[in-house]
Structure formats: C-alpha cells, structure tokens
Design goal:
- InterPro entries: AAA_GajA/Old/RecF-like (IPR041685), Bact_Antivir_Def_Nuclease (IPR051396), P-loop_NTPase (IPR027417), TOPRIM_OLD (IPR034139).
- Pfam families: AAA_15, OLD-like_TOPRIM.
- There is one protein chain.
- Strands 1, 2, 4, 5, 6, 7 and 8 form a seven-stranded antiparallel β-sheet that branches. A six-stranded mixed β-sheet has the order 9-12-13-3-14-15, sandwiched between helices.
- Helix 12 (about 360-370) links the parallel strand 12 (about 345-350) and strand 13.
- The protein folds into four domains: about 1-20 and about 35-195, no CATH class; about 225-325, no CATH class; about 435-640, no CATH class; about 645-710, no CATH class.
- With about 700 residues, the protein is an alpha/beta fold.
- The chain contains 26 helices and 19 strands.
Length: about 700
C-alpha cells in the first residue's frame, strides 16, 4: 500500500493543491517558504501517532491567509492510498473505515481530516437568505475557533480541490448560499475512533537537521535513547540480573566509602546544631543514584565516534556539523528499520531536507541507496545532488505564486520518450532548473559565461538576484527540456535564447572562388538553413504556451555582440588571442570596420582559435557598465523574469547613478537631484514613467535609458 495523492485545501500556505506520489522514493523540491514543511505536517496530522493529537488543535493561523475572512471556511487534508493490502485484517479496517470498494475488496482508500464549523454554525449558515451578505458578515463575526470541530472521514468521493465541489460541500460565500445537508455524503463517513490507521502502519518522520547536538542532549528527541529504550523492553529479566547485581553492589560500595559516611554524619550533625532535633530530618543518606532498571540505565549511555583521528573517539559535540548530521540521520534510519520489522502493513519514511552540512558525494551516495522494500519514502530537498538521484516521474515541485503555494508534477502528460529525454538532462548541473523561479535556456558556453556578466555590469543585479537560472543546454535540442514548462507541468517562465545563424557573407557561387571559399559558403548556407528550420520549429513549439518564449540572435552570439556596439571590448583583448603584431593589427582593423562580413568572420576565427568558452572568459574581463546588451537577450531576460517590481527598478537606477560617479567621473553633487527624484519614486510620490523621464533628462547617454524605455 502506498500514498498516491495528497490534497490540501485552505491549509496554511496552500489554497488548493494536489500532490501526487508513486511507489518507492519520491522527491519534493521548492524554494524557501514554498510549503514543504507545512506539507509534511499535514501528512503527519493524519499518520504520525506522535502528532495525531495535534490534529484536534488547529486554529485560525492554520487557515490559508488568502481567504481573508476564515470564519465559516473548512480546512481539508485528504490522503489517498492505492494498492491496499488484501490481508483480511486490513480489508476489515478499510471496509469499516476509509476504503473505496471495487468488487468485493478494497483497492483504494481515502483518509481525510476535516476541520469545519460545528453543526450549529453550519445550520445557521444554511438558514441565511441567499445574497444577504450583511447577515453573513454578522454571523461570521460571532464565530470563533471554539466553534470548530475536527473529524476524520473515509470513503469520500469528492475532488476537494475543485472550486465547484468546494462551494457545493461548504457553501458559496459570495452568493451566500450554503447546503442544507450538514454532513454531505461526498466528504465520506466519519471514521470511528477505534479504527486507527496510524497504529497499523510504520511511520517515521526525520525532521530537518537544525541543531543535532541539542537533539542528542534532549531525552525526548535523542535518537540513540529511542533505540535503546526500544531494546531495553526486549531484555529478559534473567539475562539482565547479573548487571542489576553489579549496579546494586556498586551503589552499596560507594555509599560505604569512609569519606562519604563522614560527610553524611557531618551534614546531619550540622543540621541538628542549627535547627534542633525536633526540626531536623528523621533520616539522611548519600547514595549513588545509578538505576538498576534497564530503561533508566540506558539513559546514561552516550555515543562516541572517531571521525578523523585514528584511535580517538569523541562525543557528538566534537564532531563536524556534517559528521553529526550523518550520525543523527543514520540513527533515525535505524529506528525506522526496527519499526519496519514489526510487520505493519504499510511503511512510510518522511525525511525533511537531509542534506544540511553533508558533503555532496555523501548526499548522492546516501540517497541513491535510500530504498527499502515495501516502503514509500518521501523527502524534501534543496540539493541538486540529491535531486539528481531522483526519478523525474516521482518529483513534486512546490512554487510560490504570491501568497499561494502551488504544486507541479514535471512529468505530467508526457510520454515515455519525453520523460526519458528529461531524465538524462537532470544531472547535477542542469537539475537546478527544477529549483528556479524562472529559466533561461541557452545553447553554448559563450552565452552561459557572458550573459550573467553583462546583466550584472549593466543592471547591478545578478541573475540569481533576479530569480533567474541560466541553463546551458550545450546543443540546440531545447524542446527536450522546455517541454517541462507548461500548464500541465511546471508553471514558470522559460525563455529560450538561440541563434538564427544567418549568413553574413555572400553565398552566391563565384567562378573565381577557391576551394576554401566554396567550403565556407557551403557551411554558412547549411548553418543558415538549420537556423531557419530551428526558428520555425521552436516558434511552433512555444506557440500558445504562455510559459515559453523564444528569442533569436540574427547571426551568432559573438557576431551580434559586436554588431550591437561592443567592438571596443573585443578589440581590447585581441592581444590575448594573437601574438603576431601584424595579425593583431589586421584583427583590430576587421573588428572596427563596421562591416559584418569582416568583423563577423574575425570574431568567430578568434573564438575558434582559443576555444569559444575560453574566448568568452577573455572577453568577460573587458565588459564594463557601458556594455550594450543585445536586444534579443534583454527581451528574454524580462520575459523570463515577468513584471519588474518598483523596488527592483529603484535598485537598478540607484546602481546606474553610482556608475555615473565611479566610472564616468560625475560629481556626487550632480547626481543628488536625480537621487531626490528616486527617493520620491520609492515613496510613491511619482510613478515609474516619471522617474524614467527624469533619468533620461539627467543622464541621457546612460545605457539604462534604452532598457527602461522598453519596460
């Protein structure tokens, strides 16, 4: 049996979300604040016996903030199980509790937590006149959290994430219409308290590793103590009797020491002298408190580990953070193994962000091997190294859309060939596209190296600060990866940057052409034809998909970099490519000619001469804040980013004012009037168009003006 679906309605930062799981290992990834911890807590409210009592203590802070007024709404957490065991005991549990019957056996089951107003409140809501918003508002003001109840239900048939279904079951707060049926059958039957799924399954939760040393010092959370307590109950009294005798003899021996007996006598005499015989204690002893009970005795055991130095074992507090975390994780996994042998009919292991301080090689090895028979494993992670070991079909991605957290399944709706193509791309380098807020896909090293440098130099913000991940596909097979970004899958902006490879030389055959000219024209024609086909294919591929956009250079990145107005940057590094004086002079002349046939051929020759990636590194050193960013790249950046906030715009303009002082020699006093206008923009006294016009008037030649004009 395994969990196949989790639905969250109005729970914390989830308005309505569906998380899908498969057998085996499942991965949940997402940015900070996207709801990973809340998702795990929701599952624990239904399955973790240690947390189950908390299910009855939900409060108004557990309602999704996007609701505004929470009163009257419901929180619903729904788990669906698939491949339910055919064992007679299990079948009996689900037939009476939460199962959905197919034929004579249960093969699928739902188990729901419903936090809703009590029947008296639901009755008052049902009696409201449709459309009477004033009466609804008045009633809601009378409701507080004590008017709510928690019920567990099964055999439900409703898709709780469907807004229409929710309005039918709970009510339409805008139209002020509420169902007269106080307990709609669609939510399922209430599960009696005697039927407890949590007691019949193996469930282990390993929380995020924050402070491992304190966990070991706490008797309640110490994983070693948990393991020892479990084993202490299995020790035969007869087998433990010799140890009990040793402890009792040790206690007696300590108590009988002359110094101990002397101090005991001195204490008693001093009390008698101070308070008198009447008020003194009737007896007083100094005894060893070492317990002879296995459970208590095991509490004195500590774990000592030799991490690096041979022959020396230290306490947990002496280990490195990574070493301590690895030990903690290992003990929790062992705790799970001990629990698993108790023949529960389903086993679930939930691990929250296990990668903290653990070396990347250990991360990959550990989670490549983290696979137990008859166990469903669900873990959340920020690690690209762990996600590399994940099957894309078993990944859920959590993303934030304002105050709402959404869940995406990257393989939804794809065939096996498409899934296989994506899986091959998700190595440790490229898997970061699953973690990104937005994505740029590029085809080569030059774009990967130089685009981030240009953006940082011109805008003063890195791509990371803009929330954009740049992924080098190292080919033109964009469709294999870009297929991820779709309404059915990952709903994040993805911009594709590639070359049209339009020829910049005359392709007409000439009888005077030598063999080299003929070959060059043939190659250029082939590249141009491929570029045209690629443009048609990518445009058709992205057409109608609001998450995808395509952006083309006319020729290639290097050629368009110069044609945009950056010849001086390339000229400045010619001496790092060539050593011959005559060649250097000729190269500079070609680059400064303004003739695309000359500078295009020269820049590509230079790139091939030292390698495109190395050439980009050389050019990167020459890029300054006055660089011209090609228009197709800017379009891709802002298409991927989406709407630009006023705060980001203000940060960019403020950076350009610093450029005026530091790079252009403008006096600070000359910048002050524009800073004053920028301050007014930050406080909302003027809008973006106003501050943009002010910047254009103050510094008309600054690179940022052309960019601001497009926003």
């Amino acid at each position: 049996m395994h969990i196949s679906r989790l639905q969250l309605i109005n729970y914390r930062n989830f308005s309505r979300a569906t998380v899908k799981f498969e057998k085996g290992v499942n991965t949940i990834i997402g940015e900070n604040g996207s709801g990973k911890t809340n998702l795990f807590r929701a599952m624990r409210l239904l399955l973790d016996e240690n947390l189950l009592r908390m299910a009855y203590r939900l409060d108004d802070r557990d309602f999704h903030r996007g609701l505004g007024e929470w009163r009257g709404h419901w929180i619903i957490i729904s788990l669906e199980f698939t491949d339910v065991s055919q064992d007679e005991t299990i079948q009996s549990l689900f037939l009476h509790g939460v199962g959905n019957i197919s034929g004579t056996l249960v093969d699928r089951a739902n188990y729901n937590l419903v936090f809703r107003p009590k029947a008296s409140i639901r009755q008052k809501l049902a009696e409201l006149t449709p459309g009477d918003t004033a009466a609804l508002a008045a009633l809601r003001q009378e409701i507080d959290i004590t008017d709510y109840e928690t019920v567990f239900t099964g055999k439900s048939s409703a898709d709780f994430t469907d807004p229409t279904v929710y309005r039918t079951l709970v009510g339409d707060f805008e139209a002020v219409t509420f169902p007269s049926e106080l307990t709609p059958p669609e939510i399922g039957g209430i599960v009696p308290g005697i039927f407890s799924i949590s007691r019949e399954i193996g469930f282990t939760f390993i929380q995020a590793l924050r402070d491992v040393v304190s966990e070991f010092q706490n008797n309640r959370t110490n994983p070693l103590l948990t393991l020892l307590k479990g084993k202490s109950g299995e020790i035969d009294d007869a087998a433990f009797a010799p140890i009990t005798d040793l402890v009792l003899n040790l206690n007696d021996a300590i108590e009988g020491l002359d110094d101990v007996r002397t101090i005991r006598t001195d204490i008693r005499d001093t009390i008698t002298d101070a308070a008198g015989e009447t008020y003194s204690p009737k007896s007083l002893s100094i005894r060893s408190d070492l317990s002879s009970e296995p459970d208590r005795l095991f509490q004195s055991l500590k774990l000592f580990v030799g991490e690096a130095e041979a022959g020396y074992e230290g306490g947990i507090h002496e280990l490195s953070l990574g070493g301590a975390n690895l030990i903690y994780l290992t003990l929790k996994l062992l705790e799970f193994k001990y629990q698993k042998v108790k023949e529960t009919f389903a086993n679930f292991l939930i691990v929250e962000e296990p990668e903290a301080h653990i070396h990347t090689h250990i991360q990959k090895t550990l989670f490549d091997r983290l696979n137990y028979d008859d166990t469903q494993i669900i873990y959340s992670t920020h690690s690209t190294h762990i996600s590399e070991a994940s099957n894309v079909e078993n990944i859920n991605i959590l993303g934030r859309n304002g105050t709402v957290c959404e869940v995406y399944q990257p393989s939804a709706g794809l065939d096996s060939t498409e899934i296989g193509n994506i899986q091959r791309y998700l190595d440790a380098v490229r898997s970061n596209l699953l973690f990104a807020k937005s994505i740029l896909l590029v085809e080569g090293d030059a774009e990967e190296i130089l685009i981030p440098i240009m953006i940082k130099q011109v805008l003063g913000l890195s791509l990371d600060e803009l929330g954009i991940s740049l992924i080098n596909i190292r080919s033109t097979g964009f469709e294999n990866v870009a297929v991820l970004f779709h309404d059915q899958r990952i709903q994040k902006n993805c911009a594709i940057i590639t070359d049209l490879d339009k020829a910049f030389i005359n392709l007409m055959p000439d009888p005077l052409d030598g063999e080299d000219e003929k070959k060059a024209k043939k190659r250029a024609l082939g590249s141009q034809t491929s570029g045209q086909k690629r443009a048609i294919s990518l445009t058709s591929f992205s057409d109608g998909n609001k998450w995808l956009s395509t952006h083309f250079s006319d020729h290639t990145f290097e050629v368009d970099f110069i044609s945009t107005g950056n010849s001086a940057a390339v000229v400045s590094v010619v001496g790092e490519v060539y050593t011959d004086t005559a060649t250097i002079a000729l190269a500079k002349a070609d680059l400064e000619s303004g003739d695309v046939a000359k500078f295009g051929k020269r820049v590509l020759t230079m790139a091939r001469h030292v390698g495109k990636g190395w050439f980009a590194i050389i050019v990167g050193k020459a890029i300054k804040p006055d660089v011209h960013i090609p228009g197709y790249i800017l379009n891709a950046i802002f298409k991927a980013h989406g709407s630009v906030s006023d705060e980001i715009l203000a940060t960019i303009i403020d950076y350009r004012l610093k450029v005026q002082i530091q790079a252009n020699g403008v006096l600070p006093a000359q910048v002050d009037p524009m800073r004053a206008q920028l301050a007014r923009f930050r406080t909302g006294d003027i809008d973006f168009s106003d501050v943009r016009n002010e910047m254009l008037k103050a510094f008309p030649h600054d690179r940022i003006n052309n960019i601001l004009a497009t926003l």
